[in-house]
Specification:
The protein is mainly α. The chain is built from three helices and two strands; from the N terminus they run H-H-E-E-H. It has a two-stranded antiparallel sheet with strand order 1-2. It is globular and about 45 Å long.
């Protein structure tokens, strides 16, 4: 969410994943990671609320492909679903019962 929203749709430079430690687990506790994820969702929601819809058809380079910002918004939603599914599978493989799915959490 951070890169798609803040760097592609917002005005922030992309993070350098080789040196940036914001999202690297490292020594972060579970509570710290949950707080970071919650903050990222909050920042993304704020960006969406303030986004100038006149920019939706603006195009940008997405891994060598031209994509509109509208497409990036759709990809953002799809990418969140992808990672949620990964977490649910991991939970089930570890004997945990994932929370019930509720639309538009």
């Amino acid at each position: 969410m951070d890169w798609h929203s803040q760097s592609l749709l917002g005005d922030r430079e992309s993070r350098d994943w080789q040196t940036d430690t914001v999202f690297k687990v490292g020594t972060k506790s579970k509570a710290e990671m949950i707080a970071l994820i919650n903050t990222t969702f909050d920042e993304t929601i704020q960006l969406i609320g303030q986004f100038d819809t006149a920019q939706l058809d603006d195009e940008l380079d997405y891994f060598g492909l031209n994509r509109s910002k509208r497409q990036i918004f759709m990809l953002l939603s799809d990418h969140i679903t992808h990672h949620r599914a990964q977490m649910l599978v991991s939970m089930r493989l570890n004997g945990l019962v994932p929370p019930r799915y509720v639309l538009f959490q």
